[in-house]
Amino acid sequence: MRSNKFLMLATIGIFTSFSANATFIGDSAGGLWDYDTGTNSSTFIGNSGTMFDIALDPISSALYGVSGNGNLYEINQADASTTLVGDTNRFINGLTFGSDGTLYGSGGGNLFSINTSNAATSVIGSGSYSSSGDIAFDDMGNLFLSSTTGPNNSLWLIDEMTGSGTEIGDIGFDDVYGLNYTDGTLYGFTEGAETISIDTNTGVGTFVSNNQIRAFGADGAGGVDIPEPSSLALLGLGVLGLGAWRRKRQ
Could you say which residues form the signal peptide (predicted)? Predict the structure, then answer.
């Protein structure tokens, strides 16, 4: 009985501490930040060295970053220290994970798949976009990319199977180097330290706040298919309750 109570409390504690608005942002000086889009508050984690983008694995919860010379790193979320995974041998300035744990990268007009065990990278395909600095999935599995094409950065819808892209529209902001979909909204983060919301139907960006972080990349768990924390906690309690009921019946 004592062990059951401990597991129940641990389940509640783990999942109620999670913020649905949490986003990691890597800045132009190499700093890693934990940022909350809902409150516009941030916590400095440490310096990882400058990463051209970062991505959070929805399955392992590991954080990865890619440097300007194409090296892939795993980043410690407690202190921003890094472990080299390998060399992608590509120019990549956008990273994101699919809900199945596939790591995608973008650079120039190319979309890549990247092996997180050794950084081996394959070209999926290409399009007429030019990656500005990030890609992100929404909760329906649509892949979006910020591109340098157009008078400002523009938003593109990317086919993750072929790498082809369709332009949605002009964002109205430049240097949109970070994207993250969370709480039903696609957010953009600029090197000018702006947080913007982006309409995925028109591509138009709307200023939200000045976050004081000169973004070079961003990612979080919002755009992948992960149950809400409350649902996970209830599921854990349900499993524990079922186990207790079975033991009582025996």
Answer: 1-22
41-92 pLDDT, tens per residue? 999 999 999 999 999 999 999 999 999 999 999 999 999 999 999 999 999 9
Cα-only R_g, the chain: 19
* Bridge partners for 176 per DSSP: 190
Q: Quote the CA–CA distance of 14 and 206 in Å, as a whole number.
A: 34
CA–CA gap between residue 47 and residue 188 (Å, rounded): 22
Q: How many CB atoms lie within 10 A of CB 138?
A: 17
Strands 53-56 and 41-47, how do they pair?
Answer: unpaired
Q: What is the pLDDT of residues 197-233, one digit of tens each?
A: 999 999 999 999 999 999 999 998 655 544 444 444 4
CA neighbor of 25 nearest in space, from 191, 225, 199, 206: 191
The β-bridge relationship of strands 176-182 and 165-170 is unpaired
Contact status, residue 134 vs residue 179, Cβ threshold 8 Å: yes
